[in-house]
Specification:
Blueprint lengths: L5 H7 L40 H13 L4 E5 L2 H9 L7 E5 L4 H9 L7 E5 L4 H7 L4 E7 L11 H8 L5 E5 L4 H4 L9 E5 L13 E5 L2 H14 L5 H11 L2 H19 L5 E5 L9 H7 L12 E6 L2 H11 L4 E2 L9 E3 L20 E5 L5 H14 L1
Parallel strand pairs: 2-3, 2-4, 4-5, 5-6, 10-11
Antiparallel strand pairs: 1-7, 6-7, 8-9, 9-12, 11-12
Length: 386
């Protein structure tokens, strides 16, 4: 179906009507095992940890949306990253963005460092600094773009060119952008990763993860590791993400429109020291974002995530978060509803007392698809209350 456009692929890729009954919606194949014709002779499925038809449909759809050849889905985004790290061996070195999700930092430094993997945390927006961080043992550069929570934008094409020919993989956590706004494989990356919990599912009702690649040998090894380690998603979880994908294009348009309007308004508010949003000309990598974050139709769009720093530090940040009525104080992001959180005390608590520690006055918004005037009024009332 590669000849079709994004919106069509999101609804149809991997999702032909079910042949036995003609069901238009992919069934939830809620089974742990599959009947075999004879020993070793089956219909492509033998045990649900290895494969499941609902999961296969989701993987085919995700591969199509990322313009990749192969996709694997997992029980969570962290399960996807964990399985990827099992690909490496003791002594291998990985260069990591110096502004990553707290759970990613925790997994790298407090789990896999104990097994002999080595990590360097670098500002990947600085190509010279990235180049200096590379070693003979470097096997991967791990990117978030936009990053979580400072929303730095990494030039994926330039970084991929730097890694090319050195035997270094480039993996991109594409969760904040989604394949609707950014397709890392088309920019030269080797892997695109998602927490499908976020924009792909889109309704805050599922937890999952995914890896997409164009490299057959890499896929086969990751597929083996997925089956061996076993962190696979349930069929119902896969079905929920498939359902979410059908409206991804519509939702990301609204998320992006709302976020841009709110970010522009926030820049004018005296209680806020700085607004971080790739769509603002004030953003340090706005030019990179404008080039790299584009809808399939070619229009620049910057997603639904905004961070800002309150002038009054953590005390003011917490008061703002507590005062909102529509923005719900909660972790996670990417759902249809708007969320607000304090990263230093919530999603990024695990990087406290580390070089990646987050400004305690930082507030992160996941801007939903509600009416933008209502969202702005909610934030205005919260800012006025402090």
């Amino acid at each position: 179906m590669s000849q079709f456009q994004f919106e069509t692929l999101a609804i149809h890729a991997g999702q032909d009507p079910e042949p036995a009954t003609g069901a238009v919606t992919i069934p939830i194949y809620q089974t742990s095992t599959f009947a075999q014709h004879a020993v070793g002779a089956h219909r492509g499925f033998d045990y649900a940890r290895t494969d499941n038809p609902t999961r296969t449909a989701l993987q085919e759809c995700l591969a199509a949306l990322e313009r990749g050849s192969h996709a694997l889905t997992f029980a969570s985004g962290m399960a996807a990253i964990t399985t990827l790290l099992l690909y490496f061996k003791q002594g291998d070195h990985i260069v990591v963005a110096d502004d990553v999700y707290g759970g990613t930092y925790r997994l790298f430094q407090r789990v896999f460092a104990n097994f002999g993997l080595e990590f360097s945390f670098v500002d990947l927006t600085d190509l010279d600094a990235t180049r200096r961080a590379l070693r003979a043992q470097t096997r991967m550069i791990w990117v978030e773009s936009p990053t979580n929570p400072l929303l730095k934008v990494v030039d994926i094409q330039a970084l991929s060119a730097l890694a090319r020919g050195r035997g270094i993989l480039v993996g991109v956590d594409n969760t904040f952008a989604s394949p609707y706004l950014q397709r890392p494989l088309e920019l030269g990356a080797d892997l695109s990763m998602h927490s499908t919990t976020k924009y792909l599912g889109g309704h805050s009702d599922v937890v999952g993860g995914a890896l997409v690649t164009n490299h057959a040998a890499l896929y086969e090894r990751l597929k083996f590791l997925q089956n061996a380690a076993g962190a696979v998603p349930a069929p119902f979880d896969c079905w929920l993400v498939l359902r979410g994908l059908k409206t991804l294009a519509l939702r990301l348009e609204r998320h992006s429109q709302n976020a841009l309007e709110i970010a522009q308004w926030l820049e004018m508010q005296p209680q806020i020291a700085r607004v971080l949003y790739p769509g603002l000309p004030s953003h340090p990598q706005h030019a990179v974002a404008r080039k790299q974050m584009r809808t399939p139709a070619g229009a620049p769009a910057y997603g639904g995530m905004i961070s800002f720093i309150a002038r009054g530090g953590r005390a003011m940040a917490e008061k703002i978060a507590a005062a909102t009525k529509i923005f719900t104080l909660a972790e996670s992001l990417g759902g249809v509803e708007s969320l607000i959180e304090i990263p230093a005390a919530m999603t990024h608590l695990s990087v406290a007392d580390s070089p990646l520690a987050v400004d305690p006055g930082l507030v992160r918004l996941s801007v939903g698809i509600e009416n933008v005037a209502d969202l702005q009024q909610d934030l205005d009332a919260a800012l006025e209350s402090v």
